[in-house]
C-alpha cells in the first residue's frame, strides 16, 4: 500500500510529495526544497523512515517545482525524470530563477523524458501517467487506480485551477485537460495538488467555480 507524505517548501508554498510502499522504495515528486533547513527536513523524514529513494519526478518544470532537483539527485544518487514536452520550460528556469531570489539555483541534468504512454514503477506499486497540459505545455499527473489518488501538480486545486498566464500556458487547453482527464477519474479520487490542501474529484466537479463537472 502506498503512503503519501507531503512537505510545503519555498516562498511559493509548493507541495513536495514522497510516495513509498512496504518495500520502502520511495519516489519524490516536485522537490521544491531550496533552503538548507528545507533539505534537512526532507532528509530527516527519509532517514527516520528508512526509505530508499529511487527516482525524482517533476509533474512540470516551473521554478518552484524544480528547486530541489539537483540536491536530491546528488544526495541520493538517483535519476531525474521530467515530462517530454517540458524541456523548454525546464531550461528557462536557470535564466529567471534569480529574479525570484533563487540565486543558488543549480540546474540538474535530466536523465529521462516521460510521456503519457507508460507507468511509473516503484517497489510493489505503480502510477498511471495522464497528459494534462494547459498550465504548462507538457504537464503530467500521476494516478493510482488501486487507492484512487492523483498527484496533480498545478492542474486542479482545492476550489481553483492552475494559472495560465505564464509563458506557454493556455487556458482553453487547461480546461479541456480537467474535463477530459481529471474529471474522468472516479469521484472518490483524492487530488494531491501542487499548492494548497488536498481535495477530491467529486468535490471539485460539484463546487469548483472555474470548471464544473
Explain what the structure shows:
By secondary structure, the protein is α/β, with parallel strands linked by helices. Helices cover 24% and strands 30% of the residues. It is globular and about 40 Å long. It has one domain (3-207): 4-Layer Sandwich (Metallo-beta-lactamase, Chain A), CATH 3.60.15.10. It starts with a strand and ends in a 6-residue tail after the last helix. It has a six-stranded mixed β-sheet, covered by helices on one side. The chain is built from six helices and 14 strands.
Please give the structural blueprint.
Elements: E1 3-9, E2 14-20, E3 25-29, H1 36-48, E4 52-57, H2 63-66, H3 69-76, E5 79-83, H4 87-96, E6 112-114, E7 119-122, E8 125-131, E9 140-144, E10 149-153, E11 156-157, E12 160-161, H5 171-180, E13 190-193, E14 199-200, H6 201-207
Parallel strand pairs: 3-4, 4-5, 5-6, 10-13
Antiparallel strand pairs: 1-2, 2-3, 7-8, 8-9, 9-10, 11-12, 13-14
Assembly category: single chain
Q: Number of DSSP strands?
A: 14
Number of DSSP helical runs:
6
SSE order in H/E notation?
A: EEEHEHHEHEEEEEEEHEEH
Rough outline: globular
CATH architecture: 4-Layer Sandwich
According to CATH, the homologous superfamily is Ribonuclease Z/Hydroxyacylglutathione hydrolase-like
- Residues in β-strands, percent: 25-35%
Mean pLDDT: 98
Poorly predicted regions: none
Strand order of the largest sheet: 1-2-3-4-5-6
Q: Can you tell me the CATH topology?
A: Metallo-beta-lactamase, Chain A
The major pleated sheet works out as:
6 strands, mixed
Amino acid at each position: 500500500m502506498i503512503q503519501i507524505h507531503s512537505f510545503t517548501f519555498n516562498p511559493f508554498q509548493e507541495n513536495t510529495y514522497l510516495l513509498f510502499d512496504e518495500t520502502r522504495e520511495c519516489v519524490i515528486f516536485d522537490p521544491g526544497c531550496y533552503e538548507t533547513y528545507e533539505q534537512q527536513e526532507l532528509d530527516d523524514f527519509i532517514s527516520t523512515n528508512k526509505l530508499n529513494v529511487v527516482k525524482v519526478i517533476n509533474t512540470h518544470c516551473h521554478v518552484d517545482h524544480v528547486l530541489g532537483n539537483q540536491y536530491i539527485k546528488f544526495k541520493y544518487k538517483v535519476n531525474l525524470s521530467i515530462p517530454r514536452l517540458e524541456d523548454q520550460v525546464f531550461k528557462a528556469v536557470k535564466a529567471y530563477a534569480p529574479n525570484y531570489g533563487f540565486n543558488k539555483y543549480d540546474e540538474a541534468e535530466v536523465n529521462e523524458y516521460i510521456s503519457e504512454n507508460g507507468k511509473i514503477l516503484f517497489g510493489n506499486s505503480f502510477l498511471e501517467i495522464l497528459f494534462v497540459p494547459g498550465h504548462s505545455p507538457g504537464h503530467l499527473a500521476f494516478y493510482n487506480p488501486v487507492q484512487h489518488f492523483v498527484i496533480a501538480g498545478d492542474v486542479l486545486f482545492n476550489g481553483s485551477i492552475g494559472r495560465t498566464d505564464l509563458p506557454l500556458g493556455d487556458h482553453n487547453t487547461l480546461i479541456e485537460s480537467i474535463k477530459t482527464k481529471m474529471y474522468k477519474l472516479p469521484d472518490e479520487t483524492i487530488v494531491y495538488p501542487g499548492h494548497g490542501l488536498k481535495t477530491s474529484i467529486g468535490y471539485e466537479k460539484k463546487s469548483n467555480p472555474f470548471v464544473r463537472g
